[in-house]
Amino acid sequence: MQFKYKLMIVCTILSYFLPNASAIEHSPEKKIEYAKIPNNNPDILNILANKYINQGSIPLAIPLLNKAAEQENSDSLITLMTLYAHGQGVPQDEKKAQDYFKKFKKNNRPSKLFDYIIFLIQNTKTINNYKKAQILLDQYHTLLDLQEKACYQYTEKMSKEKNINIICDAWIEDEPLYKTISSLSGIIAIHLHHSQSEIQQGVKELEIYNKYYLELTSHLSKGFPSVFLAQLYINGTYVPRDYHKARNILENSLKYLLRSQSAETQHLLGTMYQQGLGVKKNNKIAKNYLEDACSLNNEQACQVLKTLSTQKHIK
Length: 315
Prior knowledge:
- The chain has helices spanning 3-15, 18-26, 42-54, 58-70, 74-86, 94-107, 110-123, 127-162, 170-192, 196-221, 224-235, 243-254, 263-275, 283-295, 299-309.
- It is mainly α.
- It has three domains: 23-107, Serine Threonine Protein Phosphatase 5, Tetratricopeptide repeat, CATH 1.25.40; 109-253; 262-315, no CATH class.
- The chain is globular, with a radius of gyration of 23 Å.
- Residues 1-23 form the signal peptide.
- InterPro entries: Sel1-like, Sel1_AlgK, TPR-like_helical_dom_sf.
């Protein structure tokens, strides 16, 4: 079942229970009547919990989130982790935050976590969501550190017991994860821009990522840090405007991305050729990039294509 239809069904079912949820919220006992939620559906529990959170009633959301988390609902696990890590509506508790994160990681590949973080950064542009994304990155970084430390301690112990040299190679698997965390943290630092030094550090992280680690991490980051860096140079935001550098970043990114990951990269390249930004204007090259981006459901690319289609000749 496609996601949008699943969501419609969940929301339709939920509409029958929201009045009950409202009554619960204003009742003296403030008890959650789980029996009124069909099969304690974790998706509905999570939606109800977010309703309470948005109303500032976090204590009412916690039992719902816990009930959904018991069924390993990923969204609820992430929400609980961020609430306890940030101390939002509950006492700050790093151990609980790490426990929830471990449960999430147990059932989800790293790429799913990074997809979620990129979604928070790219599509829900609020300070709270940037902070939520950074908390997720920090928790993942901490967990990797703990796992790596345990690995080194174990191999050191085994080396002494067996009198042979055993090496921990966790860094080989973890390096792409660390580099992806650094690049996404750089983007968040630029978005939050608490200080000029943080912005400069964020740009530096992205430059290092793009130069040395794009190929290593493209399966995790989907090239998003490169697109973000290119946009900074195209717009002259926090860096001097440099179309030539932006084009090089985008063209280099295309070498390592799957076609399904390249929509925004191709949209930007197509737009640069269509407008002659740092390159000789060439509608034919622009059209090739934009058609591919449009076929990957990039709406902006489709709009630019409509503009090109009104021209009589494609040069």
